[in-house]
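User
Here is a favour to ask of a fellow structure person. I am asking you to supply a protein in sequence and structure-token form. Please set it down just below, with no commentary around it:

Assistant
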Amino acid sequence: METMRDIRNRMKSVHQSLQVTSAMKLISTAKLRKARRRLDETLPYFEAVRGAIREIEVYAGGNGEKWFDRRERKEDRRVATLVITADKGLAGGYNHSLIRFAEEHCPRGSILLLLGAVGKRYFIEKDYRLMEDFAVSTKEPTFYEASEIAAFAASQFISGGIDDFRVIFTRMHSTVKLEPEMITLLPLDVETISAPGRRSLEDTVYSYEPDEESLFDVLVPHYLKGIVYGALVQAFASEQAARMTAMDSASKNADDMLDRLQLVYNRARQAAITSEVSEIVAGAAALED
């Protein structure tokens, strides 16, 4: 049976844990707000780039076909997948659900590019081909990091090193709805880059300088960088949302545990007082005898 001192020590330990989980929740909340703000600020630019690619593709006459899915559909296509996980845990089922999703869509022997220490530790022990290791900041994704990944994907695709390049990340629909998602970056697809609600271009004539092919070579890397950056920010925001939810649940559990321990402590204290009173009464009765 626990003594009052043991109960006090447990209450102190739980209270310290509560302070940690509360602080981590506040930090994740601040990071989440900042990430979503940055994504909202940069989205219009990359939507404009996507629209420009769509317009050029309509009149390119096949000049940009090296970026589109017009290659031979062979069975042994080399498919590389970028998997974005977190660098640490304490985020509920965030990493587990993403890794399980990646295993479902990437059979053993697939080519993987891994971001995040959790994913690296897991897949390095599995039967996968690890292609490249990118050093991405754990604090917040940057355009430079997205540009590095996009440039690598573009160079490998153009040189024939890979036939498809995909990205697996977690999309945050809301703070409580986080879903793993896979998108294909290369080859480009006309339907994918078409901006919803854009006007018809059939009756419009454009002239491009110096030529459509050169414009594609300039715009496509920007488009890829935008998609990669969006995926990085979505993954970062999803991680913070998952950690915020996990820490909130942990804080509530700690509060409940403190309430239960306080009740147990009060009962033990009351029992000790009752025992002392009984001893005093018994001693007084013995003196009277």
